[in-house]
Design goal:
Elements: H1 3-19, H2 23-30, E1 31-38, E2 51-53, H3 55-67, E3 69-82, E4 85-96, E5 106-117, E6 120-127
Parallel strand pairs: 1-6
Antiparallel strand pairs: 1-2, 3-4, 4-5, 5-6
Helix pairs in contact: 1-2, 2-3
Length: 132
Amino acid sequence: MPATQDALAIGKQLAELCSQGKNLDAIDTLYADDVVSVEACDSGNPDMPQTMTGIDAIRNKNQWWSENHEVHSGQVTGPFPHGDRFVLMFNYDITPKCGPMSGNRMQMQEAGLFTTDNGKITKEEFFYHMGG
């Protein structure tokens, strides 16, 4: 299967699982064991570095996010494939349960750039802006 078709198929599966709130299922089935995740900014928390490597670290990051945010609704758009990569757009209506925005309902938009190899996601990079 050519790279664009492979990335498109993986992107469709990821979008479907994320739309259903099954992010951990997506990680378990679509991610490589040595996946790399890069956030747009450093949280300042040593337990949540900007760059994380390995499927267990990515699972833990996603588990933390779901435990610390009330998700009122979410929408996933895409995938938009390009070679061995694809982009998904995420729109969330959330209320953080901790941190400086705790208890404040907010809208969050995020783009995710995913790189694939041998039928698995090997890298995820997120783009968003937090703040005024």
